[in-house]
Amino acid sequence: RVLVGTKVDETHANWVTAYNMLTGIRVSVSRTNAKLDRDVTLADFDVKQKSTFDIAGNELVPSAKYDFKFKDYAPWVFRNLRGLFRLDPADYLMSLTGKYILSELGSPGKSGSFFYFSRDYKYIIKTIHHAEHKFLRKILKDYYNHVKANPNTLLSQFYGLHRVKMPYGKKIHFVVMNNLFPPHRDIHQTFDLKGSTTGRDYKEDDLEKNPRATLKDLNWLRRKRKLELGLQKKQMFLEQLQKDVKLLQRLGIMDYSLLIGIHDLRRGNEENLRDKTLRVFNPGGDIPEESEPNSFLMRTPSKLENQRKARELRQMLQAERPVPMGQTSNRMPDELEEGHSRPDALFNQDDGGFQATHEDNTPADEIYYLGVIDCLTHYGIIKKLENFWKGLSGDRTQISALPPQEYGDRFLNFISGITMSQEEAVREAQERDAA
Ligand code: ATP
Ligand code: CA
Ligand code: CA
C-alpha cells in the first residue's frame, strides 16, 4: 500500500500501457464521435469494437508506436452517456489525448487497481478486474437508464469502457470516469464513508506526516462532523442518494462509498500545495514525506511530436465531426478553462461542488465535492464467504461485507444521520444533553 511514484520513461512498461490506452481512446472515440447521431438501440449494448494497432497502420487505424490490440465496449452507449453527462466531445479527447501526459498513482486500494489522471485532472482512468468489467457490461443497460432518468445522479460517471492487450501481455480492462475533485480548489479534507465502523479508521497518528490522507467513518465520527446542509439541500441530496442506492441494491452491488472532499472557504485556496495530485487524490495516504511528489509525469512527447499529434487530432476531429466545430476545437488543453465539467448539474452548482447551507438555506463556509464511488463490486461468492467468516466473530451489522440490501440500508442510514445543518446539530446535542 505504499504510494511511491516511479518515473516512467519509454523503456518502462507503464509508459507503453498508458500510451496504448490513450492511442486507443483517441482513435476509437473519435471514430464513434464522427458518426451521425441516432438513438441507442438494444444491440448497442453488446457491441465490441476491435482495433489492431501497429507501426504500419492501415486505412482504418493510423500507425502507432507499438503493437497492441484495443477494444472499445458499447462505444455508442458511452458516447450517449458522455452526452447525458454534458461533456463536450472535443474537450474530452483533448483532455485525455491532446498531450500524452498522465500522472499515475500505483495501486492505492486493496483491489490492485491503478489510477491515472488526465493532465487537466478532469478524468480518471481506473484499471478494473475482469469480474468488474464483466459486471459493468451486464448492468450497463440499467446504469444507462438510471442516468437518463436521473441527470443528477451521484453515482460514478462512466465515460468509457476499454481493453488493451499487448503482445504476450495480459488483458487490461479500464474505465474512464469523472474526478470528483476540482482541479482549481484546495480540498482540505477527504472522507471515504461506507457506514461501517469495522476497519474504517485512518490512523490519526499518521495524519501528521500525511495531512491530506483520505479519512474514514471512524475519523468522521470522532470529529463529530456533519454534512452541513439546510432543509432544502438536505432533501435534494438525500432524495437523489436514495434513488441511487436503490439501483445499487437492485443490482446486487455493495462495498461502495460516499467520497466527500471538503473545501473550507475560510481557508480558501491560499495553501499553495506542492503537488496537485496530493491535494486532489490521496487515497491510501501512505505517502513518504521525503519522496518525490507521489505522481509523476509520463514521458512528455517532444515538441515536434506534440505538434504532429495536435495537428493529427485536429484534423481527425474536423474531418470526422459532422457538426460545425465549436470554439474549443483549436485550443490546446492548456487553454481550456479550469473548473468542473458540469457546472449545470445540481451537485456541482456552487463552484463545481455543493455548498454547505444553514437551516434557512443561507450559505455556510464549506463546499462539498461528493459522489458515490467504487460501485462495481457485485455481492458474489467471495463476499458471501467473507461474510460467513467475519460473521463467526463479531457483530454482523458492523462488518463491511453485508448483502446488498442491508449494505445499502446501513449506508443510507449513516449518511442521512450525519446530514444536518449546524443549527440542527446544536439542537440535537442539546436534546441529548437534556435527556
Ligand atoms: P478498494 O476496493 O480497496 O476500496 P479500489 O481500488 O476499488 O479500492 P476505490 O475505492 O475506487 O479504489 O478508490 C480508492 C480511493 O481513490 C478513494 O478513496 C478516493 O480517495 C480515490 N478515488 C476513487 N475514485 C475517485 C473519483 N472518481 N474522484 C476522486 N477520487 C477518487
Ligand atoms: Ca473502495
Ligand atoms: Ca473496489
Automatic annotation (TrEMBL):
Residue spans of biased composition, Basic and acidic residues class: 332-343
Region feature (Disordered): 283-302, 320-359
Cellular component, GO, one term: plasma membrane
One GO MF term attached to the UniProt entry: ATP binding
Boundaries of every PIPK domain copy: 11-419
GO biological process: phosphatidylinositol phosphate biosynthetic process
Keywords linked to the UniProt accession: ATP-binding, Kinase, Nucleotide-binding, Phosphoprotein, Transferase
Protein name: 1-phosphatidylinositol-4-phosphate 5-kinase
Organism: Cercophora newfieldiana
Species lineage: Eukaryota, Fungi, Dikarya, Ascomycota, Pezizomycotina
Residue span relative to the full protein: 331 to 765 of 1006
